[in-house]
Specification:
Layout lengths: L1 H12 L2 H23 L7 H20 L4 H6 L2 H5 L5 H31 L6 H27 L4 H18 L25 H28 L1
Length: 227
């Protein structure tokens, strides 16, 4: 798993992908920092993370995940990967954790904004930490969805569209059926910016993450068996 993790990290940062993802994140963060914090003279950062999770992740997650398996299939290197001594589980987890690592880097960079605000008022550190934990949980769920999308198609664009569609659809379909609220990641993030760790929302986000990872493993194993 760690060999795959290191390989994927190198891929992110020896190519423009990782830098573009971080740059897009920081750009979105800066925009929302002004709109939700500076313009209101507030020291509350919950709205900043909420807006970034709702809109920023729609751009960052597809960018990080669309090539995970789609590129391997398109370039014909997936067969080499599947016939390597590494297990499918370790391959999937290595790719997943590498994308999570990129998100964690962006979260570390986001502390810059908290530092700026600290010059103008006191920041509730525990609330900020809880908010960042919630953001990471949402990002992990989104990454697992994007990874699953990448595993079912060799076209990176289609993978990105599927990921965005799954993330956005619950916003509009929840009015038709409450079942869609169960996959609305942003709805499960709402309590975290207030400093509240919701056990039910945490379990839901982790369940979505684990479920998508397991489905991805099953799909990849099935292709490995066929080949």
């Amino acid at each position: 798993m760690w060999a795959v993790f290191k390989k994927e990290i190198k891929t992110y940062f020896l190519s423009p992908i990782g830098y573009i993802a971080i740059s897009v994140f920081m750009l979105m963060y800066s925009i929302f920092f002004y709109l939700t914090t500076i313009s209101y003279g507030s020291v509350f950062m919950g709205d900043l993370y909420y807006a970034t999770a709702r809109y920023g992740l729609l751009l960052i997650i597809p960018l990080l995940t669309m090539r995970m398996f789609s590129e391997e299939r398109k370039n014909g290197t997936e067969q080499l990967l599947l016939t390597s001594p590494r297990s499918v589980t370790s391959i999937v987890l290595g790719k997943f954790l590498s994308a999570v690592a990129v998100i964690m880097v962006t979260l570390i960079f986001s502390i810059i904004y908290a530092t700026i605000i600290s010059f103008f008022g006191d920041i509730n550190i525990p609330t900020l930490i809880v908010t960042m934990i919630g953001f990471l949980l949402v990002a992990m769920s989104a990454i697992s969805i994007g990874m699953l999308a990448s595993s079912i198609t060799e076209n990176q664009i289609i993978s990105a569209i599927i990921t965005i569609g799954v993330l956005v659809a619950p916003w509009f379909l929840v009015d038709f059926s409450s079942i869609f609220s169960s996959i609305d990641l942003i709805d499960k993030f709402l309590k975290f910016p207030s400093g509240l760790i919701s056990i039910s929302d945490t379990i839901s986000l982790l369940s979505i993450t684990i479920m998508c990872i397991l489905i991805t493993i099953v799909l990849i194993k099935r292709r490995k068996t066929v080949k």
